[in-house]
Structures are given as C-alpha cells and as structure tokens.
Amino acid sequence: MLQLDPTSAGIQPSDAYPNVWGALMETAYPNGVATLVALADGTTSLYTSTGGGVIGGGEHQSVAAETRGFLAELARHLDQLAPEEGDLPPAVGDVVIRALTYTGRLSVEAPQDELSSRNHPLARVFYGGHRVITALRHIDEGRGSSGSPQSPSPS
C-alpha cells in the first residue's frame, strides 16, 4: 500500500481532498498492531498483525461516508505531518497517522493517550479514523464475526 501509485490504481485527485489519496492509521497494542487503510476511491479495510480484520468495508455506505470524512480531516491537517522515509510500525501505546499524498508520504507518531485527550493538534484526525473503525465494526458484527478489529488478540 505504501508503494502504490494512485493513478495506476485509478485514484484521481478530488475537490474534497485534492492532495490526499489515502491514509493509514496504525495503533500498536502489547499483542499486535491494528492498521486502518482508507483510500480516496472508497477502499477501506482494517488489518491486524495477528491475522484478523475487516476487508472491503468501503462497499458499505456508512463506512464510505466515514472514510471520506477521515480523509477530508486529514487533508486539513497535512501541515501537522512531516515527510516520511520509513514504514516502521508505532511503538506500543502509540499511533502513526500516515497521509498518502500525490507528492509523497507524510506521517506523525504520537501517544494514543495524547490523541484521545482531544488536546493534541491531530485529535480530530484520530477521531475521524476511529469513526471509520466503528463503522467497520458495525458491518463486521452484522456479518456475525466475533473478532474485535480495535485490539488485536494474540495468536
């Protein structure tokens, strides 16, 4: 995903977020990492390093709407992110928010506690990502899954 060329995947700039074609929000827990993937074409999935997750969520209107909101919020906060060279997962207790832009990747890593306090400059982006995760959980629960995409379980 981090190496994907958006134009070869058919993703074009939009009026809502002309510079952003996707986002990843990775949260590290003691037993694994959860990665939210949200793309401008509506592709939305949640992966866990233990093998669980929800794929294809963007096909659902509720998830697609939250994905658009998440990307728009991220686009409004690009000046809070720095250019990224690597792709390491966050430290336990931290969140990495990655913006996939047409000119390169930007990211920030911050403690989850700070982001969830609503005092962090990127709290709105963090909560936008969590609204997507909540929408994904609702469709996953509707499918009868018993897994929790928010916190990976040990394998």
Short account of what is shown:
It contains three helices and seven strands; from the N terminus they run E-E-E-E-H-E-E-E-H-H. The protein is of the alpha+beta class.
Model description:
This protein has 155 residues and is an alpha+beta fold. It has one domain. The protein contains three helices and seven strands; from the N terminus they run ββββαβββαα. A seven-stranded antiparallel β-sheet has the order 4-3-2-1-6-7-5. β6 and β7 (104-111) form a beta hairpin. α1 runs antiparallel to α3 (123-142). The longest helix is centred in the C-terminal third of the chain and has 20 residues, at 123-142. It is globular and about 35 Å long. Mean pLDDT is 86; it is low at 145-155.
Layout of strands and helices, then pairs:
Layout: E1 20-29, E2 32-39, E3 44-48, E4 53-54, H1 61-76, E5 82-83, E6 94-101, E7 104-111, H2 112-116, H3 123-142
Antiparallel strand pairs: 1-2, 1-6, 2-3, 3-4, 5-7, 6-7
Helix pairs in contact: 1-3
Tally of structural domains: 1
Structural classification: alpha+beta
| N- to C-terminal distance | 24 Å
Order of helices and strands: EEEEHEEEHH
Gyration radius over CA: 14 Å
Low-confidence segments, ≥5 residues, pLDDT <50? 145-155
Strand order within the widest sheet? 4-3-2-1-6-7-5
Question: What is the β-strand count?
Answer: 7
Major sheet, described briefly? 7 strands, antiparallel
Inertia-based shape: globular
Strand-residue fraction? 25-35%
Rounded mean pLDDT score: 86
Helix content: 25-40%
Helix count equals: 3
